[in-house]
Amino acid sequence: MVTIRKAIGDARRIVVKAGSSSLTTPQGTIDADRIDALVDVLAARRAAGTEIVFVSSGAIAAGLGPLGLARRPRDLATQQAAASVGQGLLVARYTASFARYGLTVGQVLLTPDDMMRRSHHRNAQRAVGQLLALGIVPVVNENDTVATDEIRFGDNDRLAALVAHLTRADALVLLSDVDALYTGDPSRPGARRIDEVRSAADLAEVELGGSGRVGTGGMVTKVEAARIAGVPVVLTDAARASAALAGEPVGTYFHPGDAPRMSSRNLWLAHATTGQGRVLLDAGAVEAIVQRRKSLLPAGVTGVQGEFAAGDPVDLVGADGRVVARGLVNYDATEIPELMGRSTRWLARELGPEYEREVIHRDHLVVLA
């Protein structure tokens, strides 16, 4: 297994993600000892010549104590307030901890727009790349202070996978409060640890709980992150971080798939968004999108469901009710009925040149079928 994991030990750039439980106390305060222990590991790998991009959860959790909150709030506004307070505390702690090794950190707060919009994506990629070139350790988090329920990464496991694409990293290490992936809750008898995942077949025995999580809390998002990362992934707990980064046989090792890596924008559309509505397609449009990777034109639209605005992600649905793709729509839901079944040339002539455009351009569309 050590030979199999040589890709981790030899990686020149690694994205490391740590969950809130690895960084904070149950009372919602920053655990300085845990952070220092993790920074010790990251700084050692950094000193060995590997570039480290650190994706850190914990902003909301770190803000609970200062705000006098006993538990994570359910409403978005209070979550945003907690993140605003906690993010500063968290970065201050990282700044002090990495400074023990003469290392400087740079905070990078990302929103889905930074993965979705080409100019934002290039700017984010350039910013992180320059931080690394200057010897800075990027500390990445979702910008929870301004995130909304409708459009957000949803969890930092998916964010870490997308950052691995953004930075063209060689490997991804996910640090959790569980030492590996198990077939069920590891605290219960009969749960079997999974050392390697080569394909979906290796996950056949993994149980999905009623909450939609794999085995224990949050595992489903880690499995999904490993699936979309496109690079070798290790899942383990923070106590085994040093061994994981060295390529030792700890935790669960996910082999990268054989499929070409998707763009960060398409990864975000496929795995980190929810369709704000549905656009119904005829058979010809489904074939054009799925088989020929074409844009969606008004002529192939047969109906609209839900309320959405131009720029929102929407699901594209065939006549059988199956979602075949997701994309960023160019029209409001109220505009589309007038366009259905029409050619873009007819629309431009009858409604004006601004209507001579696709419902969804192929550059803003990802096939899911």
TrEMBL record:
One of its GO terms (cellular component) is cytosol. Substrate binds at S57, D144, N156. Keywords: Amino-acid biosynthesis, ATP-binding, Cytoplasm, Kinase, Nucleotide-binding, Proline biosynthesis, Transferase. It is an enzyme of class 2 (transferase). Pathway: Amino-acid biosynthesis; L-proline biosynthesis; L-glutamate 5-semialdehyde from L-glutamate: step 1/2. It is found in: Cytoplasm. InterPro entries: AceGlu_kinase-like_sf, Asp/Glu/Uridylate_kinase, G5K_ProB, Glu/AcGlu_kinase, Glu_5kinase, Glu_5kinase/COase_Synthase, Glutamate_5-kinase_CS, PUA. ATP binds at K17, S176, D177, T216, G217, G218, M219, V220, T221, K222. GO terms for molecular function: ATP binding; glutamate 5-kinase activity; RNA binding. Residues 277-356 form the PUA domain. GO terms for biological process: L-proline biosynthetic process. It catalyses: L-glutamate + ATP = L-glutamyl 5-phosphate + ADP. Its EC number is 2.7.2.11. PANTHER family: GLUTAMATE 5-KINASE, ISOPENTENYL PHOSPHATE KINASE. Catalyzes the transfer of a phosphate group to glutamate to form L-glutamate 5-phosphate. Belongs to the glutamate 5-kinase family. This is Glutamate 5-kinase. It comes from Actinomadura logoneensis. The lineage of its organism: Bacteria, Bacillati, Actinomycetota, Actinomycetes, Streptosporangiales. The gene is proB.
